[in-house]
């Protein structure tokens, strides 16, 4: 299933937040959305996930979600959103409880996703026993368990320290390499965008408009942290955003 965003504009009262966003998200690609604070990245993601509707424009689903998808549009948030009294497998099973699954299917799905996210040994652990990185792995496993057509990730790594972020990026790349998923990934972090994005959508400051879409055709598995090519793209992105990021920062200070 692809997604097609057509002429999305939005106002909150008299403030125009997004202006005429047109974007295609194709099956199997990771699309990163970057832009200065307050430019409407999370708002756009909420429209894509159907949590809110834009003032004008549409998010069109092109083609069908996979037949076995239990939740075609699935979020992963920055704060992990785990229930503290449930174990790792209990948190994952939460996403499956509203679905009538054949006998044994839930167990099979959980075994598969904990294995893919390297959590097999931690199935019985409680969130308080886990590091931030492990908690986010649980959130990723939970999201994968419903076999989403598109993963919607809102700053999924920004609560983590830089080393853990690197490890989780490796995991996201590894998961994609084994079974390519489709994702829309909102981030402030340009290094994450160039490591993970097949396409990077640069939004301008309020109202958020698409300033540029940068495609990177280096295979994800070949993108190393210190690659000069990625560093160059990252610098170009920063040049594009620098003044607007500064202006957004000043606006927050003045508020
Ligand atoms: N429910 C709402 N009601 C009114 N204004 C809102 C609402 N949600 C967001 N906004 C405003 O819309 C603008 C865009 O917000 P949004 O959170 O989408 O931006 P963002 O680019 O994700 O920001 P950040 O990078 O700081 O997370 C901001 O000015 C915000 O204050």
UniProtKB/TrEMBL annotation:
Listed GO MF terms: ATP binding
Keyword check for Nucleotide-binding: yes
Keyword check for Phosphoprotein: no
InterPro entries linked to this entry: AAA+_ATPase (IPR003593), ABC_transporter-like_ATP-bd (IPR003439), ABC_transporter-like_CS (IPR017871), ABC_transporter_ATP-bind (IPR050166), P-loop_NTPase (IPR027417)
Residue span, ABC transporter domain: 3-230
Keyword field: ATP-binding, Nucleotide-binding, Transport
Family that this chain belongs to: Belongs to the ABC transporter superfamily.
Protein name per its UniProtKB record: ABC transporter ATP-binding protein
Lineage, broadest ranks: Bacteria, Pseudomonadati, Pseudomonadota, Alphaproteobacteria, Sneathiellales
């Amino acid at each position: 299933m692809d997604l097609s965003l057509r002429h999305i504009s939005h106002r909150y009262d008299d403030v125009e937040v997004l202006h005429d966003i047109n974007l295609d998200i194709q099956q199997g690609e990771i699309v990163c959305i970057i832009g200065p604070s307050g430019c409407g990245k999370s708002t756009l993601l909420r429209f894509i996930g159907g949590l809110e509707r834009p003032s004008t424009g549409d998010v069109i689903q092109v083609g069908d979600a996979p037949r076995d998808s239990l939740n075609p549009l699935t979020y992963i948030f920055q704060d992990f959103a785990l229930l503290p009294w449930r174990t790792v497998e209990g948190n994952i099973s939460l996403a499956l409880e509203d679905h009538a699954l054949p006998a044994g299917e839930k167990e099979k799905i959980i075994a598969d996703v904990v294995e893919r996210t390297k959590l097999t040994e931690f199935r019985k652990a409680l969130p308080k026993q886990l590091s931030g990185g492990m908690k986010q792995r649980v959130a990723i496993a939970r999201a994968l368990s419903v076999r989403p057509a598109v993963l919607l990730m809102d700053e999924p790594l920004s609560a983590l320290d830089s080393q853990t972020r690197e490890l989780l990026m490796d995991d996201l790349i590894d998961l994609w390499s084994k079974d390519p998923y489709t994702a829309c990934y909102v981030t402030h972090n340009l290094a994450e965008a160039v490591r993970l994005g097949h396409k990077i959508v640069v939004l301008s400051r309020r109202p958020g408009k698409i300033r540029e879409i940068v495609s990177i055709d280096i295979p994800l598995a070949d993108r190393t942290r210190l690659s000069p090519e990625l560093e160059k793209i990252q610098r170009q992105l920063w040049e594009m955003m620098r003044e607007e990021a500064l202006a957004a920062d000043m606006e927050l200070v003045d508020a």
